[in-house]
Amino acid sequence: MLPPAAAPVAHDPYAALRLPEFRRLVSARVMYIVASQIQGVVVGWQIYELTNNPLALGLIGLAEAIPSITVSLYAGHVADSVPRKRIIVPAMVVLFLCSLSLFLLTKPAGMALFANKQVLAYPLYVAMLYVVLFVSGIARGFMGPALFSFMPRLLPSRDLLSNAVTWNSTTWQASAVLGPAIGGLLFAQQGKGFAYGVDAALMFTSLLLFISIAGRALPEREGQKLNLSESVLSGVRFIFNNQIVLAALSLDLFAVLFGGAVALLPIFAKDILHTGPDGLGYLRAAPAVGSVLMAVWLTYSPLRRGAGRKLLWAVAGFGLATICFALSKSFALSLFLLFLTGVFDSVSVIVRSTLIHTYTPEYMKGRVSAVNNIFIGSSNEIGAFESGAAAKLMGTVTSVVFGGMMTLVVVAITAWRANKLRELEMGTK
């Protein structure tokens, strides 16, 4: 008589969350992201209120993107050369000090130093806000590669990697839901000073949580030791030699660069949908609501068959929803369309993150993550500048419609040229 077959191992959607240090890492990221989102809502509304200029909103993204891009490749080299916690903690200290600076600049003494009520739009005061954002961009440039490459070191097995990536994305999106809504409500009910104070408090709490996680040794390097320039560029070469990863990154890059309307939401909120800071918070939160719901769904039903084709359809859906949002005059419809952009974007985020973690050796994850940060992280800020500049030249609605159409063009080109991505099945290399 044959022995009974072993029962199949059930998929555990909470596997990574059962690890105490992974939970602390996730909690620290939640605090950090909520704080950043609160800051984004408040500083965007504040600068538009002072300047009434769409280009000024675009410059917010540029102020963060320029330093982040500038340091990214070197930051990736550092993340693969120095224990990652030694980078994360100092970066969080700088981010906390930036949040504290924004809070202090709202106080009467801070405003008196840089603002003159007789001067239109407080030019020096606005410039100081951009300076703080510039410094925070440097810190984020170092934070991204270190945090990306630190997370897998907390896992006892690569079998947990896909689950950890999905929870990372889910909690990121959940934080992005809370942050804008909290920021808008705090600004509307308590004023920008109080909102910036909450931002600083959350950054400090995140710093303490990161400190509480034990450091990890660097993974063993493979191959010969590279000099600085070779090491910095190795992440670029790795990505450009991998068609699947390059295609996924390029697809996300151009979709975010052309298809995002988030930077212009203060204009839509104030001038088109006729709502206030609280309405802006809901608009900012709507994409993240869609993202987190889709991410939770994917936690229980991971992408397997036809993942590449689903990715292409998702980015196309993102472009179509963006076009419809630009044409909407209804606040409720606009919320729903932004919700859909988040649903579609979540698929792209999870597929891209899983691909990078799966295909990249541990000893190179800092450098590859740095290139990912240039492709994706900074494309949000550059996309914000592109949106602001396009809105100034073409008008707000026309610029967002144009961006959505360009997203569809990018999807069509990627589907045509990147056959390996089109045929991708998750779980295989």
Automatic annotation (TrEMBL):
Membrane topology: Multi-pass membrane protein
Transmembrane domains' residue ranges: 30-48, 54-75, 87-105, 125-150, 194-215, 244-269, 281-300, 312-339, 393-416
Superkingdom in the source lineage: Bacteria
Primary location class: membrane
Organism encoding this protein: Hymenobacter humi
Annotated protein name in UniProt: MFS transporter
Keyword check for Transmembrane: yes
Pfam families according to UniProt: MFS_3
Organism placement in taxonomy: Bacteria, Pseudomonadati, Bacteroidota, Cytophagia, Cytophagales
Keyword terms, alphabetized: Cell membrane, Membrane, Transmembrane, Transmembrane helix, Transport
InterPro entries: MFS_dom (IPR020846), MFS_trans_sf (IPR036259), TM_effector (IPR010290)
Gene3D superfamilies recorded: MFS general substrate transporter like domains (1.20.1250.20)
Major facilitator superfamily (MFS) profile domain boundaries: 1-422
Keyword Manganese part of the UniProt annotation: no
Compartments reported by the entry: Cell membrane
Family matches, as PROSITE patterns: MFS (PS50850)
